[in-house]
Amino acid sequence: MPEKYLYEELKEKAFDYGISKSQIPDFIVDNLKYPLFAWQKNAIENFLTYEEIRKEEGGLKPLHLMFNMATGTGKTLVMAALILYFYKKGYKNFIFFVNQNNIVDKTENNFINKSHSKYQFKQNIVIDNKTVQIKKVDTFLSKSEDIQIKFTSIHKLHNAVYLAKENSVFLEELQRQDLIMLGDEAHHFNATTKKNKPVQLSLSGELSESASQEEIEKSWEDTAINKILKRGNNNKNKQNNNALLEFTATIPRDQSVDDKYRDKIIYKFTLESFLDAGYTKEINLVSSTLNKKERILSVLLLNWYRHSIAVKNNLPNFKPVILFRSKTIEDSRKDFDEFLDIVKKL
After folding, report:
1. Which of 33, 73, 244, 345 is exposed most, by the fewest CB atoms within 10 A?
2. Beta strands in the chain (DSSP E)
3. Chain centre distance of CA 70
4. From residue 190, how far is each of 93, 95, 219 by CA, in Å?
5. Residue 181 domain-assigned?
6. Both 96 and 135 in a single domain?
7. 71, 249 in Cβ contact below 8 A?
8. Both 272 and 297 in a single domain?
């Protein structure tokens, strides 16, 4: 019988240690722009309970957790709450990263731009009667009292470490800091795990924008986890206060990935659970035995039909959208070329 997931063990462990249900502190709730939904509260409460359990169990290892929450459930607000929590604990330096450079800019507005509609905090963040600023940085200032966030991608993070390897100033500086790392869309970081291939931690050279999934995971394991989170595994007998919090809507359905994250999944709220909660649109799934070309043509035809119905009913702004999704970046490039070829030959 497989071991339980971390989130399934929390109640039992909390009971054994005499830990009551954790309550979300006012300094978190009062500084968030939006009220928390029930599942967001549950995610944060699970995290707070686990923090109490870790205090009882001690240990020197850094914190590494996974939040598995469906798209649209508000993972970003949970991130914002955790940023406030760690700041209250004394952390000032945060690294937020994703797997692709072109996604980074979209996230900055959520945490930095007060005028943006998706900004996650109140206009004035007040903790312990002190106004707290959130600043985007490239390097962390040691004497700052602000929340400092470095927004990057696994590509940029790896290359910054690689290009500085001769004097290693950048990496050494990171390894001296107590860091909170937030990794979004984390399912992209498990390409070789899914193939049951051992991840070789050595990745010499820069990581290009066209890097393969395997190269991205090598960089993830080596740069983000080994070199930064674990500080190169140096001083194993010394307390490591770093934390890595991963977020994803989709954990690949693969036993090796499942085993990898079994002791890290602190909360799970799937699309099915989201649908049951009644807070998202009903989804109709249609399957077929058509080949790829036939599926593309049938979807294009359906889309054209929807557009025609909208025009007939005087809905000029109705713009149906199609998403063609591939399993990997490599597949996506190949599928895109095939799609263009099909359309050009219609």
Report:
1. 345
2. 63-69, 93-98, 125-127, 130-132, 134-136, 147-153, 179-183, 243-248, 265-269
3. 11
4. 26, 20, 11
5. yes
6. yes
7. yes
8. no
Residue 120 CA to chain centroid, in angstroms?
A: 16
Among candidates 318, 296, 299, which has minimal Cα distance to 309?
318
Convert the pLDDT of each residue in 92-119 to its tens digit.
Answer: 999 998 876 667 777 888 999 999 999 9
Residues of the domain holding 300: 292-344
Calpha distance 216→292 (Å, rounded): 27
Do 256 and 305 share a domain, yes or no? no
Domain shared by 272 and 184, yes or no? yes
| Strand pairing report for 125-127 and 130-132 | antiparallel
Q: In a 3-state reduction of DSSP, which class is residue 53?
A: helix
Over the chain (346 residues), what is each successive 10-residue block's mean pLDDT? 85 94 95 96 97 90 94 94 97 88 78 92 96 93 92 84 65 89 74 50 63 75 86 79 92 78 93 86 81 92 91 85 80 90 91
Q: Are residues 218 and 305 in the same domain?
A: no
pLDDT (tens digit, 9 = 90+) per residue, 243-273? 999 999 887 777 777 888 899 999 999 988 9
Angle at 284 between CA 279 and CA 285, to 5 degrees: 125
Angle, helices 169-176 vs 154-163, to 10°: value is 120
Sheet holding 243-248, edge to edge: 134-136, 147-153, 93-98, 179-183, 243-248, 63-69, 265-269
Question: Do 267 and 189 have their domain in common?
Answer: yes
